[in-house]
């Protein structure tokens, strides 16, 4: 099986949160792959404390999830991120509403304005990529989304869920946020965090606000806002010096930490915009392991996973996930790559 190009059966798509399937948040399945032995293990997420040791560090993304989709009669507008250097301009994706889902919409022209709910107007300024527009809303975007937006939902999720279903236990800044959930952290609960801390596992925060995904085009990520605080950078370096393992909770955390690595391989406090893409050729310097969801075929995230796990272990893990009925996407099961 090519880990970058496989067939995902529709039956393995998670259509709703695990709570709607009769499971707790931390009751999803956890697939564990170990680089040292090539071993693949099967667990429940609530068993995570037993898989980590005292002195290990989990780095988590504290970004909150915005209700970033605004629905019109025939279109949906997905708000992604502000443009670097101009917070009045946002990247948006126009999608044509098709039944309960939406598909990319290729129309629009520079200068066109779109009437929005609540009396606001969205003006298309210029194309940024084939599917994204730089656009200007006639009012402040985040407060507007709080009033008129709903969480972004793709076709495999069959109905709307409240914004709370898309927040992680670590989300703390509700005045800002990302277009989509840092979903690797969704299975964490307050009780599980307590169990981890009681075991001596360390946690440290950073922030990366995600833009809209590209489930149809499989495009690489573009510039996203991030911040690695001074205390987090110092703790990462301390854990590495003491021989502990730095485990990123989500691909967003890997992207932020790898952006913050200096020329000497040390993680430094850093903030701004990152366009860093982790590839097998470039490798990783800041993390030893990764907790992440299961990613779609041909997704750019699989390049990052290959850089951390190696192609052999990653192919074995995805084969095991397919053979054992693991569930994909933001409401699905989770994959832990350990050294």
Number of helices: 7
Shape: globular
Profile the largest sheet: 9 strands, mixed
Q: What kind of assembly state do the chains in view correspond to?
A: single chain
Q: Total strand count, please?
A: 16
| Derived structural class | alpha+beta
Average predicted local confidence, pLDDT: 93
Report on this structure.
- The protein has 339 residues and is an alpha+beta fold.
- The chain is 19% helix and 27% strand.
- It is built from seven helices and 16 strands.
- A nine-stranded mixed β-sheet has the order 2-1-16-15-13-3-11-12-14. Strands 4, 5, 6, 7, 8, 9 and 10 form a seven-stranded antiparallel β-sheet that branches.
- A hairpin with a 2-residue loop joins strand 6 and strand 7.
- The longest helix has 13 residues.
- The protein is globular, with a radius of gyration of 20 Å.
- The two termini are 23 Å apart.
SSE topology:
Blueprint: E1 29-34, E2 40-44, H1 48-51, E3 57-61, E4 69-71, E5 75-83, E6 86-98, E7 101-104, E8 113-115, E9 121-127, E10 132-137, H2 141-148, H3 190-199, E11 202-209, E12 224-228, H4 230-241, E13 246-249, H5 251-259, E14 270-274, E15 289-293, H6 301-309, H7 311-323, E16 334-338
């Amino acid at each position: 099986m090519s880990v970058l190009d496989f067939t995902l059966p529709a039956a393995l798509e998670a259509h709703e949160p695990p709570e709607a399937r009769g499971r707790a948040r931390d009751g999803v399945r956890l697939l564990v792959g170990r680089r040292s032995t090539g071993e693949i293990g099967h667990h429940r997420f609530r068993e995570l404390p037993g898989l980590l040791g005292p002195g290990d560090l989990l780095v988590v993304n504290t970004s909150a999830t915005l209700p970033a989709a605004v629905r019109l009669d025939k279109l949906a507008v997905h708000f992604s991120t502000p443009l670097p250097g101009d917070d009045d301009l946002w990247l948006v994706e126009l999608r044509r509403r098709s039944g309960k889902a939406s598909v990319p919409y290729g129309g629009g022209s520079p200068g066109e304005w779109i009437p929005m709910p609540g009396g606001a107007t969205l003006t298309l300024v210029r194309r940024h990529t084939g599917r994204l527009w730089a656009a200007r809303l006639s009012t402040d975007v985040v407060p507007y989304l709080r009033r008129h937006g709903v969480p972004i939902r793709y076709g495999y999720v069959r109905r709307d869920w409240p914004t709370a279903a898309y927040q992680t236990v670590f989300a703390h800044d509700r005045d800002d946020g990302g277009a989509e959930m840092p979903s690797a952290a969704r299975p964490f609960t307050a009780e599980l965090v307590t169990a981890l801390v009681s075991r001596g596992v360390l946690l440290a925060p950073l922030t990366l606000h995600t833009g809209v995904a590209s489930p149809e085009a499989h495009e690489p990520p573009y510039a996203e806002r991030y911040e690695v605080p001074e205390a987090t950078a110092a703790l990462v370096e301390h854990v590495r010096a003491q021989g502990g393992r730095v485990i990123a909770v989500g691909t967003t955390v890997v992207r932020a930490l790898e952006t913050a690595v200096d020329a000497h391989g040390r993680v430094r406090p850093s903030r701004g915009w990152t366009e860093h893409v982790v590839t097998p050729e470039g490798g990783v310097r800041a993390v030893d392991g990764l907790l992440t969801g299961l990613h779609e075929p041909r997704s750019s995230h699989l390049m990052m996973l290959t850089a951390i796990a190696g192609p052999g272990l990653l192919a074995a893990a995805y084969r095991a996930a397919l053979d054992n009925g693991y569930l994909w996407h933001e409401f699905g099961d989770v994959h832990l790559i350990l050294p």
